[in-house]
Amino acid sequence: MSSWLYRIATNELNQYYRSSKYKPESLQQLLENPQMEKLLHDHAGNEREMMEQELKAYDDYNRIRKNLLKLDVKYQEVISLRYFEQKTNTEISEILDKNEGTIKSLLSRGLEKLRNTL
Questions:
Q1: Is the pTM higher than 0.90?
Q2: Among the four 3, 16, 45, 109, which has the fewest Cβ within 10 Å?
Q3: C-alpha pair distances (Å), 106 with each of 55, 80, 90, 91, 97
Q4: Start-to-end Cα distance in the chain
């Protein structure tokens, strides 16, 4: 008997909270609210700014990649491993079987050549 009463009470509470939890407003009411209009406008502006930044970063990446391909292969290897693969100079020296000082020199010269092409 008591479990039956608990079940009824639980269902009644669930029904009460379900009906009062969400009351949708029309889109027109939201747009007429000056605070909501400002919020929507700000949000759209932030999204546009973020997308413009992503587009600029993508354009920069493509420009750098195209100019990187114009460099000698020895420079392409060390720059790609360092900046695209996130390898340390020690790891690059092991991969390419070259001295760490040579790797530093190749990176420095390669980056300088890349800057000059940009």
A1: no
A2: 3
A3: 30, 12, 13, 14, 13
A4: 82
What mean pLDDT is reported for the chain?
A: 83
User: How far is CA 34 from each of CA 24, 29, 30, 47, 48, rounded to the nearest angstrom?
Assistant: 18, 10, 8, 20, 21
Biggest CA–CA distance in the chain, Å, is: 86
Sign of the alpha-carbon torsion through 12, 16, 21, 26: positive
Tokens 């010269």, residue located: 109
The token pair at 3 is 């479990």
Instruction: Let me know how long the chain is.
Output: 118
